[in-house]
Amino acid sequence: MTVAEVTFTVPNALDVIREARRQFGDRVLLGAGTVLDPETARAAVLAGAEFIVAPSLNVEVIRLCRRYDKLVMPGAFTPTEVVTAWEAGADIVKVFPADVVGPAFFKALKGPLPQVKLMPTGGVDLTTAAEFLKAGAVCLGVGGQLVEPKAVAAGDFPRVTQLARQYAEIVRQHRKV
Question: Are 92 and 118 in contact (CB under 8 A)?
Answer without folding.
Answer: yes
